[in-house]
């Protein structure tokens, strides 16, 4: 044991960390079952994949694979700046938005600092906080009496903020619950937050939300210098494999984030694809329409199975399977259907199902019917 004394060099946060559990890859299940038509509805990917224009741009960019990418992401930042009507100095590019969430933790958290987030909140807030050796303060979600059951309880989150708080994470909508916050309540929360605290509003599923009261938090950047809004190309834009996301913030915040960012964190094909994706609004519209229809299909199927689910505005739905979900997950795997257990989110009786194509949704519902 004494030769492993170096283990104590790892700080307490790292020692408490359990690695992120990704959705099971299709290829892995197909190898295990010896089949070729498995369905993966486990990672909230776009069943249509990327825009053909984004793919073409990525392919063309591969010709320059021998060169380092543009570390400043000039073209992509210009396209994002135009989209949000902000100065490019407000933008921090990330290797997925997960990367910018980590940058925020590295810059604004650390020993003795606390991060506030909600129960059932996206697990990366927990992971980034521990990796920065800071203290996670997880606030119980709504119990249903004062707000949507399992949604963020902003009042309780506000009450958990104190002198030691460095960052508050709000997911709108949240993954894996699909719950969301209205413009007035989120704006009120941000307005009341002390200015020594960074407020992260994670809008990974922004494009999918069609509720009239749903806010675009980037509109408030001018009012709240402590606000960081994160977006991704992994979900509605269908570019999960290429890893591109970004943060919008006050330029002083972006300056700090960019100091610790790896100089070449977003590769060249990814930057090119993301620029092209921003230019293809039709593809996003098609994806959103397909999601709307697929969500209806899943909800009808789940209702027919007598199941309850958490009402979701994202491209996924988290279902109460009425028994330990790990067993149902395993049984669905044997049916060639990969969904996502959410036990680590404090939901051991639930499974999260990504909205897929009509045929994929049917396959998942039929398998669920057989398994239950
Ligand atoms: C998927 C997801 C992200 C980040 O995904 P990236 O691929 O790293 O951009 C961020 N927040 C939430 C809530 C998500 O579900």
Automatic annotation (TrEMBL):
<dbReference type="GO" id="GO:0000105">
    <property type="term" value="P:L-histidine biosynthetic process"/>
</dbReference>
<keyword id="KW-0028">Amino-acid biosynthesis</keyword>
<dbReference type="InterPro" id="IPR050106">
    <property type="entry name" value="HistidinolP_aminotransfase"/>
</dbReference>
<keyword id="KW-0808">Transferase</keyword>
<keyword id="KW-0032">Aminotransferase</keyword>
<comment type="subunit">
    <text>Homodimer.</text>
</comment>
<dbReference type="InterPro" id="IPR015424">
    <property type="entry name" value="PyrdxlP-dep_Trfase"/>
</dbReference>
<comment type="pathway">
    <text>Amino-acid biosynthesis; L-histidine biosynthesis; L-histidine from 5-phospho-alpha-D-ribose 1-diphosphate: step 7/9.</text>
</comment>
<comment type="similarity">
    <text>Belongs to the class-II pyridoxal-phosphate-dependent aminotransferase family. Histidinol-phosphate aminotransferase subfamily.</text>
</comment>
<dbReference type="InterPro" id="IPR004839">
    <property type="entry name" value="Aminotransferase_I/II_large"/>
</dbReference>
<dbReference type="GO" id="GO:0030170">
    <property type="term" value="F:pyridoxal phosphate binding"/>
</dbReference>
<dbReference type="InterPro" id="IPR015422">
    <property type="entry name" value="PyrdxlP-dep_Trfase_small"/>
</dbReference>
<feature type="modified residue" description="N6-(pyridoxal phosphate)lysine">
    <location>
        <position position="235"/>
    </location>
</feature>
<dbReference type="Pfam" id="PF00155">
    <property type="entry name" value="Aminotran_1_2"/>
</dbReference>
<dbReference type="InterPro" id="IPR005861">
    <property type="entry name" value="HisP_aminotrans"/>
</dbReference>
<dbReference type="InterPro" id="IPR015421">
    <property type="entry name" value="PyrdxlP-dep_Trfase_major"/>
</dbReference>
<feature type="domain" description="Aminotransferase class I/classII large">
    <location>
        <begin position="37"/>
        <end position="368"/>
    </location>
</feature>
<keyword id="KW-0663">Pyridoxal phosphate</keyword>
<keyword id="KW-0368">Histidine biosynthesis</keyword>
<dbReference type="GO" id="GO:0004400">
    <property type="term" value="F:histidinol-phosphate transaminase activity"/>
</dbReference>
<protein>
    <recommendedName>
        <fullName>Histidinol-phosphate aminotransferase</fullName>
        <ecNumber>2.6.1.9</ecNumber>
    </recommendedName>
</protein>
């Amino acid at each position: 044991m004494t030769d492993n004394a170096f283990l104590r060099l790892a700080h307490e946060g790292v020692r408490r960390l359990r690695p992120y559990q990704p959705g099971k890859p299709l290829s892995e299940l197909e190898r295990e079952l010896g089949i070729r038509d498995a369905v993966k509805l486990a990672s909230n990917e776009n069943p249509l994949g990327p825009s053909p224009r984004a793919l073409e741009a990525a392919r063309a960019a591969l010709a320059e694979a021998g060169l380092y990418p543009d570390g400043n992401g000039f073209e992509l930042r210009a396209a994002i700046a135009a989209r949000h009507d902000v100065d490019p100095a407000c933008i921090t590019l990330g290797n997925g938005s997960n990367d910018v969430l980590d940058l925020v933790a590295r810059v604004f958290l650390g020993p003795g600092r606390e991060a506030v987030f909600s129960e059932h909140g996206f697990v990366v807030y927990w992971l980034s906080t521990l990796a920065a050796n800071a203290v996670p303060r997880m606030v119980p979600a709504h119990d249903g009496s004062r707000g949507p059951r399992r949604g963020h309880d902003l009042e309780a989150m506000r009450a958990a903020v104190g002198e030691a708080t460095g960052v508050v994470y709000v997911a709108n909508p949240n993954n894996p619950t699909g719950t969301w916050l209205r413009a007035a309540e989120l704006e009120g929360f941000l307005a009341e937050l002390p200015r020594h605290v960074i407020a992260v509003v994670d809008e990974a599923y922004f494009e999918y939300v069609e509720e009239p009261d749903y806010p675009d938090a980037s509109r408030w950047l001018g009012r709240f210098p402590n606000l960081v809004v994160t977006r991704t190309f992994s979900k509605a834009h269908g570019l999960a494999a290429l890893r591109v996301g970004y943060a919008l913030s006050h330029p002083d915040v972006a300056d700090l984030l960019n100091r610790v960012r790896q100089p070449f964190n977003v590769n060249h094909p990814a930057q090119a694809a993301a620029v092209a994706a921003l230019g293809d609004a039709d593809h996003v519209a098609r994806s959103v329409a397909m999601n709307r229809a697929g969500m209806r299909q899943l909800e009808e199927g789940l209702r027919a199975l007598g199941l309850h689910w958490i009402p979701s505005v994202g491209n996924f739905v988290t279902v109460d399977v009425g028994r330990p979900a790990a067993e149902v997950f395993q049984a669905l795997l044997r049916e060639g259907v990969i969904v996502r257990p959410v036990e680590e989110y404090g939901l051991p009786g639930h499974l999260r199902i990504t909205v897929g194509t009509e045929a994929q949704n049917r396959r998942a519902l039929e398998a669920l019917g057989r398994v239950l």
